[in-house]
Structures are given as structure tokens and as C-alpha cells.
Specification:
The chain is of the alpha+beta class and 791 residues long. Helix content is 37%, strand content 10%.
Length: 791
């Protein structure tokens, strides 16, 4: 070995018939250098590999028949030398000298004395002849040679230089990569996976121990490798939060095992139980999930009911029992007191409101109803809406409908600790079944003197009489229309939410005139004025009644053939339906009269049709003289008796002390889907279009809005306004974020370029305009058009 260059001769590393090639591509290399930090090792460098991987070889192991390990990490050199008990070599020692120096140590690792094979000659032809003779005598009957790796090991053992297959096929060089990586074109990848006894160990060793050599594989237990594979399979099927939970459980198992081993060394009369872990699926089901005494079945939680129509329903009574029993803090509608004590109004807002005074039961202060238990009146707020799952593509059947109830929530607490789920179902399904269950439970929970409404209150550790009063129902406009079954906002008589009347007929009188507007700004009273406007007060408006409206039902105060604007109330709708049903059954009203009578009440057309159909069947069954027709009606009545009686009213109409005015809009819908969206699409876009800055605004806001979206913040869910600033696909949360950013985005209007293309009329006759050209023509002149005009 030359000490000046640090290069080792090939003969130095060909001791005892051992030839070395790159274990990655199986190519012979002459790039063998001394390792300066430890002369006991040499460095083999393969220039043929793309990565030019370095391999470290132990000189001492080369002096004997001990298998030489290819070391990739320099940090493993010290571990290898300490494990083999090698003595350090100086830089001047060759391998033969090292063999003599360490002969006594090396012989301890030999199971039997073996004579060294003669060093093969340098002549390649002689080497291949010796290899051919030895392979005929020994290797033909050797059943251990199964893979290419076995073949290469046997070549090295007999002192034969391996055939360089890569040189024979140059096009395969790029595919001869490290077999430890997942590469289907690798030579050793599939062989390592199917090698007898080490296939799974190779994967586990590479993933968990960063190594897949033979020494590492011998230290891995087969049972542990199977456990690792199954654990990886389980983790791939659960969510990231469940993985964190599983990791915490496994960490505690290891901690418990160490604690148990420490406790066994200590003598004690009462040894703690060891951590119980299931050993089979049957034990998991019986003791953890589904058994009658399992952990999940005995957990204190309300029962989940699965209804035949696909809904799940959770009883309000059970949820309230668990919430109060576990000591969740509730704020009563009135201070907690006995019934024979006077009420004292505290600083709370809800009891002092108009709605709070409506739902407070006068029976609370009645001395005759004095009881030994405390009375706990609680307000409830119901809200329901539809939503989309995060991994579901939006379509007409993908939405889910949910209903939540908040009972006794503190006024300034928005944590949701007093809110629980009531039902869950498909958005397109009929929710009448769960609404009926809700109606029945709210009726039962209304009275505090019902013996079923005695609950244990963990906060004071006593039983109390509970009364739940529904304070408000929070829903958006479509949800409220579906729950109450009143006409939507695009109908003639229900354009204003909660009111009934024809707004188009009196639209000029609704806004305040200039004089009334100034008085309103100065907070002056405008009642009793002589003015043509009503200043947004609908109580003084009237409109012409429909053509078929019954004359006997017209109010006297509204004038001839006129109806007054009025609030929609559940009581008035019920009385109107009952009156219409009675008149049809008597045969006095026809279908047009019923329709014109019930539509101004705000009732949906579907209910109107059911009222007339049921009442007409009863009339026909009572008056018909056609025997076959009577027989058919009687048979239908036996099968469907509900078709021959009054119609089934919406279940929300039957909740005590609940009116249409108590169904309020969600604030975010009003502010962002209402005000912000209207301002952005109608005012902002119109301003930019008139100044030819619409395209510039879309390009200017694209990058900052996309950067904000990438942050993934809950309060800043902004999305791009679109290539033409059309604001397409934006939901309430997107409009909320845009509203917060609009102060900065709109501040650059004056700096935008006016680069929108100007419209130019096509120089042709109007009869030859295409549909697109006609739309552009009308749009440039601010003329609205519809699909009928397109046709």
C-alpha cells in the first residue's frame, strides 16, 4: 500500500481468493482507497453508479473466511470494530501483517480451522477455466443457489471474478439500482422480498432500522415484523387524528411495561393490575366495543336511535340528563330558586327580552304549585342546516341535514358545551318523522311539574324540576320555508320574511320620503303624520284581494275588496286551513276559491292541494249516490284513513309558544350571503365594468387571494374572484373572508389599468347576428335578457 497516495493495490484486497465488486451494480472497480480516519478499513468507490456510493471494508475480516460486511455509514465502523474485537492498525500495516497481528483474536470467530485457498492468478482466462471446472463439480448439484445474490456469493467463495452482465447489456445500466428501494426494475428488489425467511424482514429492517443487511435481519424477530406490517396496514386505514391517538396508546403501553417490570422487583401486599390488552378480535368486541358490559356500551352517553327512513335521532331527554348530571354549567332562564320564593331579575338579557317574557311560565310563581325541589327553567335554541362532507363532490343527493339544540347556554359562552345533536339524515329526505319526535319531547319537557322532568343536577348535587322553553329557531330562508311549509320569498305574498302581502302593488309607498327620512335620522317620532309614504311600516299598507277571494272573508277595516298586510302567525294559518276545509266539505267552495283564500296567508301550494283533496273526498263519500264509486272510496278510506280527515299540519306548528317570528335568520347568511355578496356583484362589478377595470381587478386580486387560501386559516377562507371577477362558487365563509379583505382590495381601484376590451358592433345586419353577438350587443347597452328572449 502506498502511503503517499493512500491507494491500496487490488492484490491487497484480493486476499484468500476474494474479489470485490460494487454491491449495488455488481461491477468490478479498482477505486479502492485507505480510510484515513481508521487504517483498518478501506474505501471502495464505484464510479459506474450514478450516486458513486462509497463502501467501507474491514481489512481484518478480509484476512479470514469471516464474511466481510459492506459498511455504508462511517458511524458503523466503530460499532463493527468493537463487536469483532479488532485491534487498531497503523497506516503502514498491510493486510497480511494485520492478519498476523490479529490472528489470535480472529481465530475466536472461526468454528473450525480451514485452510486458505490459493490466490488465483491474474490471468483472466485461467480464472474462468478454473471457475468452469469448479461449477461442474460443485455448483450443479448445489440446491442453495436460488437467487442472483446466492450466485454472486458462490462466485466470490470460489475465487472467480463475477461476470459483468451490465457491460454485456449497456442499456440495462440505468435500471441496476439499489435493491433496497422500491424499484420494480431493480435486480435485487423482488429477490429480497421473496428470499426464504427474510422477505418481510427486509422491509421492516429498511423502514424501522435504516438497514437491511444480514446482521440487522438476524436481530429482527419474525413475530415483531408481522406486528409492524399489520400496524402499518391499520394506520393506512385510519385518519391522522386516530393515528395520533394510536401512537399515544402504544407509547403508554411501553411505559406501562417498564413500570410493571419496576414494580415486580418491589414487594408489596397489593400489586396493581397489569395493563389489559386484547389478544383477538373476539375479545375486542366483547370487552371494548359491542358486549353488554363492554366499555363503549357502558359509557355514559345517550342512546342513538336509527329510524327506518335513514335518520338517526338522539333523545333530548337523555342528552339533557347526561349534561345536567355531569355538572355542565347551565344558565337558567330565571335564577335557580324554589317555587314559593319571589322571582328576582338578574343581569341576564334573555329573561328581560320580549321573547323571554312570552315563554316564562306564570305557574312558576304560583304558591299552589310549591314543591320541595328546585325549579330550573332553561331556554333552548334550535338550529338546523344542511352541509356537505369534505370528501364528497357536490350534487343534489350529497348533502346531509343536521339539527342541534343548545339548552341553558350562558349568554357569553360560545364554546358549544351546552349544544348536542338531535338528528342527522340525508338532505333530500323527508324529515317529518324526526320533527314529530322533536315536537313530542318539547311538549313533555315544557311543564316542570311533570314527574318525568325531575333531573339530577350535578352542580348542586340535588334533583331539580326542569322546564325547557324554546327561545328561538335559527335557520336560513330555504330551511325555514321547509320547516314551516310557508311560501318562499319569491312568491307574490311572502316577499318579506314573516309578513304576508303583495309588495309589488305598494312598492312606491314603502320607502320613506325625504321629510320622513330626515326625521328618522334625528330620531323623531313620525307616527300620526299626513304623508303618502309608510316609512317601512307595513302595518298601514293594504292591497287588492285576489279575484276569487271569498267576499264574506274580507275584513271590514281594509276597504272594498282590499286586504291588509299582516304578520304570518301559526294560529291564523291553522284557523284558515280549518275554515277552508269546512267550506269545501260543505260544498260551498271550489278549488280556485280555496287557493286564493289560503295563498295570502302564506301557506304553501302543496298544503292547499292537500286541504282541497281531503275535504273533497269526504264530501264525495257523504253525497255521492254512485254505488261503485262509493265502494271505491270506502275501500280507500280503510287503507288510507288519513286522506279522509283533516290534513297533518307541520310538526313545528305544534311546538308550544312558537311563532313564525321566532324563526330567525343566521347572522352570517344575512351579512355575507346578503349584504356583502350584493354589494360586490352589483355595485363593485358595475363600477369596474364602467371604468374598463374588471379584468385588471381579477388579475390583481388573484395572487394575494390564492396566497391567503394556501394558509388554510379558519377565519380567512378566501378564494379567487375568477378570471372575469364573477365571484363564482363562493360560499358564506368565502364572502366573510372577502369582506375582511375588501378594505385593502378596493383601495387599489384607482391604480388599476383600464385594459378591458371595448365593445365593437359587428358590421353586419341584425338578422345575421349570432347568439353570442346578440348577448354582447344587449350587454353593452345594459339591456337585460332572459332565456325566452334568447329563443
Amino acid at each position: 500500500m502506498s502511503s503517499s497516495t493512500g491507494r491500496i493495490s487490488r492484490q491487497d484486497f484480493r486476499h484468500n481468493g476474494r474479489f470485490f465488486c460494487c454491491p449495488q451494480c455488481f461491477t468490478m472497480t479498482s477505486e479502492i482507497f485507505a480510510y484515513k480516519k481508521d487504517p483498518s478499513f478501506g474505501v471502495l468507490v464505484c464510479r459506474n453508479c450514478i450516486t458513486q456510493q462509497k463502501w467501507y471494508l474491514c481489512k481484518v475480516c478480509l484476512c479470514d473466511h469471516i464474511s466481510c460486511k459492506y459498511i455504508r455509514n462511517p458511524r458503523e465502523i466503530f460499532i463493527h470494530s468493537r463487536g469483532k474485537k479488532h485491534k487498531a492498525l497503523s497506516a503502514d500495516q498491510s493486510i497480511n501483517e494485520a492478519y498476523t497481528t490479529n490472528n489470535q483474536v480472529v481465530t475466536q470467530h472461526q468454528s473450525s480451522e480451514t485452510s486458505a485457498l490459493p490466490v488465483p492468478e491474474d490471468d483472466t482466462t485461467t480464472m474462468h477455466i478454473n471457475f468452469a471446472n469448479s461449477i461442474n463439480e460443485n455448483m450443479e448439484t448445489d440446491s442453495d443457489i436460488v437467487t442472483v445474490s446466492d450466485y454472486m456469493d458462490r462466485l466470490k467463495f470460489y475465487g472467480c471474478e463475477p461476470i459483468d452482465f451490465v457491460e454485456l447489456y449497456p442499456t440495462r445500466k440505468e435500471h441496476c439500482k439499489n435493491g433496497r428501494t422500491k424499484d420494480v426494475n431493480s435486480i435485487t428488489y423482488f429477490e429480497n422480498q421473496h428470499k426464504k425467511g427474510t422477505g418481510v424482514l427486509t422491509l421492516v429492517g429498511k423502514a424501522l432500522h435504516k438497514s437491511s443487511d444480514q446482521e440487522t435481519l438476524r436481530c429482527i424477530d419474525h413475530g415483531n415484523s408481522l406486528c409492524s406490517i399489520l400496524l402499518a396496514r391499520l394506520c393506512s386505514r385510519i385518519t391522522s387524528s386516530d393515528r395520533d391517538t394510536l401512537a399515544a396508546l402504544l407509547g403508554y403501553v411501553q411505559h406501562s411495561a417498564r413500570t410493571d417490570s419496576a414494580n415486580t422487583s418491589q414487594t408489596s401486599h397489593a400489586q396493581p393490575y397489569k395493563l389489559h390488552l386484547p389478544e383477538c378480535g373476539k375479545e375486542i368486541r366483547s370487552k371494548y366495543v359491542e358486549g353488554p358490559n363492554s366499555l363503549m356500551e357502558t359509557l355514559p352517553r345517550p342512546t342513538i336511535q336509527r329510524l327506518p327512513d335513514g335518520h338517526i335521532y338522539i333523545s333530548i331527554r337523555e342528552s339533557l340528563q347526561h349534561m345536567l348530571g355531569h355538572g355542565v354549567k347551565v344558565e337558567p332562564l330565571l335564577p335557580l330558586q324554589r317555587t314559593n320564593e319571589p322571582f328576582s331579575n338578574g343581569p341576564m338579557t334573555h329573561p328581560l327580552s320580549e321573547r323571554g317574557q312570552e315563554i316564562i311560565d306564570e305557574q312558576f310563581a304560583d304558591p299552589k304549585n310549591a314543591a320541595a325541589e328546585y325549579i330550573l327553567p332553561l331556554k333552548g335554541s334550535l338550529w338546523s342546516d344542511g352541509f356537505l362532507a369534505f370528501n364528497v363532490v357536490q350534487n343534489h343527493n350529497s348533502s346531509v341535514h343536521t339539527c342541534m339544540l343548545t339548552v341553558g347556554g350562558p349568554e357569553k359562552d360560545h364554546s358549544g358545551g351546552n349544544t348536542f345533536l338531535v338528528w342527522l339524515g340525508l338532505g333530500s329526505a323527508d324529515h317529518s318523522s324526526v320533527q314529530e319526535l322533536l315536537q313530542n319531547e318539547l311538549k313533555e319537557l315544557e311543564s316542570p311539574y311533570d314527574e318525568r322532568n325531575r333531573f339530577y343536577l350535578g352542580e348542586i348535587k340535588k334533583h331539580v324540576r326542569v322546564s325547557v322553553k324554546l327561545y328561538a329557531v335559527v335557520q336560513d330562508r330555504p330551511e325555514r320555508t321547509s320547516s314551516l311549509q310557508i311560501s318562499a320569498g319569491n312568491s307574490v305574498y311572502t316577499a318579506r320574511s314573516g309578513w304576508s302581502g303583495d309588495i309589488l302593488a305598494v312598492q312606491r309607498k314603502i320607502p320613506a320620503c325625504r321629510e320622513c327620512y330626515e326625521k328618522l335620522l334625528n330620531d323623531e317620532c313620525i307616527s300620526g303624520r299626513d304623508c303618502q309614504c309608510v316609512a317601512w311600516n307595513f302595518e298601514h299598507l293594504s292591497y287588492k284581494a285576489p279575484d276569487n277571494y271569498p267576499i264574506e272573508s274580507l275584513p271590514d277595516s281594509s276597504g272594498e275588496n282590499m286586504l291588509c298586510f299582516k304578520r304570518i302567525k301559526i294560529e291564523s294559518m291553522c284557523s284558515a286551513i280549518a275554515h277552508a276545509y269546512e267550506m269545501v266539505e260543505k260544498g260551498q267552495w271550489k278549488k280556485p276559491v280555496v287557493s286564493d283564500y289560503l295563498r295570502p296567508e302564506g301557506i304553501q301550494p302543496e298544503i292547499i292541494d292537500n286541504v282541497f283533496a281531503n275535504a273533497n273526498r269526504c264530501k264525495q263519500l257523504r253525497t255521492t249516490r254512485n254505488v261503485p264509486f262509493r265502494t271505491r272510496l270506502q275501500a280507500e278510506k280503510e287503507i288510507h284513513p288519513e286522506r279522509f280527515c283533516g290534513i297533518t299540519l307541520p310538526h313545528f306548528w305544534g311546538i308550544p309558544k312558537l311563532e313564525v317570528i321566532d324563526f330567525i335568520d343566521a347572522l352570517m347568511h344575512q351579512l355575507f350571503l346578503g349584504t356583502t355578496k350584493a354589494l360586490a356583484k352589483e355595485l363593485t362589478c358595475k363600477f369596474l365594468k364602467d371604468h374598463r377595470k374588471l379584468t385588471s381587478f381579477a388579475n390583481f386580486t388573484k395572487e394575494p387571494l390564492e396566497e391567503v387560501e394556501k394558509l388554510g386559516l379558519n377565519r380567512w377562507k378566501a378564494i379567487s374572484v375568477g378570471p372575469t371577477a364573477g365571484f363564482g362558487g363562493m360560499l358564506s365563509e368565502n364572502w366573510e373572508s372577502y369582506c375582511r379583505l375588501s378594505k385593502w382590495l378596493h383601495g387599489f381601484f384607482q391604480n388599476l389599468d383600464s385594459n378591458d376590451e371595448l365593445y365593437a358592433d359587428p358590421h353586419t345586419e341584425y338578422c345575421h347576428y349570432t347568439s353570442r353577438q346578440m348577448k354582447s350587443f344587449l350587454k353593452a347597452r345594459n339591456i337585460s335578457y332572459s332565456k325566452q328572449s334568447e329563443d
